[in-house]
Design a protein that fits this description.
This protein is α+β, with helices and mostly antiparallel strands and 138 residues long. Helix content is 41%, strand content 17%.
Amino acid sequence: MSSPHLRRAIELAAEARAAGNPPFGSLLVGPGGAVLAEERNTSVTDDDITAHPELKLARWAARTLTPEVAAGTTMFTSCQPCGMCVGAIERSGLGHVVFALSTEQLNAVKPGGGFAPVPQEGPSLLEEATAVVAGYYR
C-alpha cells in the first residue's frame, strides 16, 4: 500500500531519530480524512519508556474525541504497534491501524532481534481476584 499518510509517519520517525529518540512516528486521521494529530517517539528525550507515538495518540484520542469519532479514525504508523500500544489503542476506541514495517521486519534489523520475553505465571487466587473485578464491567 502506497500512502502519503504512511510516508508522513516515516518522516516523523526520521524526525524522532534526528532528535535522539528511537525512530518511530505516527499520525491519526479522522473519519473525513483530515490529520487530527501527529506524534514522534520521545522515550529518550522525555526519559519515559512509554513515550511511544502510538500510545501518545491513543491517550490524546481518549481525552479529546467522542467514541463515535474515535471509532472512525485510522492511525498510520511507521512500525507495527507494540503490545503496550495495542492495548492503549484498543482501550481508546480507535478504529483502524495501518503500519509500514511489521514487528518481525523491525526485529530483523535490530541487533539481537528485539526484546527478550518476560516469563509470566498465573492465574492464581481466582476467587479473590474475581471478587474485586466482578460487577465492574457492564
